[in-house]
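Lab meeting minutes (informal)
Scribe: AK
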Amino acid sequence: MRECKIVSKKFEIENAHTLAVAKKHGAYASLEKLKEYSPLEIINIIQESKLRGKGGGGASAAEKWALMPQTGDKPSFLVVNCDESEPGTFKDRQIISKDPHLLLEGILLTCYAIKAKHAYIYIRGEYFQFQKILQAAIDEAYAEGLLTECDITIHRGAGAYICGEKSALLESMEGKRGHPRLKPKQKEPEWFFNNPALVNNVETIASVPFIVQNGAEVYKAFGTKQSPGTLLFAMSGHVERPGVYEAEFGTSMMEYINHFGGGIKNGKKLKAVIPGGVSCGVLTAKECENLTLDYEALRHIGSSLGTGGMIIMDEDTDMIEALKNILEFYHEESCGQCTPCREGTGWSDKLVAKILDKRGTKEDIDKLLEIADTMDGKTICVFAPSVSIVIVSFISKFRDEFEAALCVK
């Protein structure tokens, strides 16, 4: 397996989170390219690189950037999402804690390309220690004169998962660097709703400096034709060496688990893998044998690469208990706006608890699948369909375990 360190290049360098050490190892060098390229040319480079969003969806980054207006009177904004609420996802904190200046460099390049003068980084509430590191890096960048063309503001929120970005962003804007502070019960300013904003996650933006500095073809030399480049995979669960490791798309899943993770813990057998965070369909050990880590391969098998949050489960894992753990998260996180989601997450959580407690019936399993169907595609956002995917994949692939746990009358 060849070494692919695009985003994680400085992760092992001591004090790389400081400006002095980061600059010593090439930080902000790509900003020199802004003397050569116009904003549209930067977007074209990103388009040629085929950079895909690394926050879960895998959509073309450049296509989103190209939607931002290059002319007009309204200001544009960049929003960098570092919420990482989904269980199994913990890669963005690595960038922020080990190489925050890489993210800031990516922000400056992106803001130049979309002609934004202000970027907002939304960070989850539990990430207080990472916010301190990131804010220190921002302060260093201001002191060095690197942020003369673009302001950067952090907002630490409650953890929004899907639906809370707008309110968190609005709160972060209050009273910041010339923006109006809202008084209690005052309506949101019209400029907030009427101005264009680009939203990308941390790793997507942190990939931009390498591409601008080295060119699209160098980036595309890694990965596959349809999934070029690399991804930070956050590997947790029953492996010898859990952690965050960067690999190119197209890498063998089992080779990745064995090379970086050291194999299944205590020499046990692999039973299942959730490949990209708990919103992705679970995979059996058999399905993982010849599977590669790229968007197309995971989609073909009925799952998703997601954020790369890879959860490994060994032969002793109780799959009913695993599903219960996931559904507790979804039950808690549902915003409650849509009835199928509000009622479905709670109902499915209770039914799995009933089965886990040996009080379930075959009708309860069928009812779980019926609830999953009701939640799929019948709500405003993708939260409920994610729950549906999880329920269906667990039951369809491990139904024998669910049936073995049913109440025997």
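Next up, CB showed the second protein from the same session:
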Amino acid sequence: MNITQTFYDKLADHYDKLFLDWSSEIHEQALILDKLFRKNGFDKTAKILDCACGIGTQSIGLAALGYDITASDISRAEIAQAKKRAANEKVTVRFEYADFCALNKTFSEQFDIVIAMDNALPHMLTKSALEAAVNSIANQIAPNGILVASIRDYDALLADKPPYSPPYIHKTANGQRVSFQTWHWNDDCYKLVQYIIDDASSLQVNKFECEYRATRRDELTNLLLSNGCRNVTWLFPEETGFYQPIVIAKKL
């Protein structure tokens, strides 16, 4: 089991704590994605693969809008969480365990839309690993289909290499919850430590560690173009309402 699997397996039961209201968040994000899909010529007949689904933050909301959703992840614990949450939201999602670097081992079909949100691709710690992931994902996109993915704004972050992210402070029924990350840089890679602190009747501190490689937009654009995509477009939070830059790439 690699560090990414371990990170998400441990985080699975706590992931929703990163949001003020996870149930509201999934529906807000689904509306953002639905608008992007429609602008690119797709409607709710599109078949979608969420290849880094986590606990279902995007896939469950999209299913609630009526999309045909297949969702996969490398973390079995997060898949288990996602299944429970889909049942709670009374939506149908096909969940599969799969590594997005080798999607053809799990899926024989192609999809009209593949999504990989929430900074999933920068888990690839080398250029060759990122290329393998992009190739794997591109091969599961049907002709004239699209990839929709989001990453942190590393073009900006690499200028200063900040040592931490600003904290999120959420009021809870019995106190408050504080979540923040520290980033320990080594060239273009960094070790991320996620803290989730519940300050209620008793203090609870949870800590999760992972690694990322800062991926510049030009690097990802060039990999998409060299793996059968065209019309690669970047959209920023002020344009979409999503908290990270989003790339949309159309398959030849």
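CB comment: The chain has eight helices and eleven strands.
No objections, moving on.
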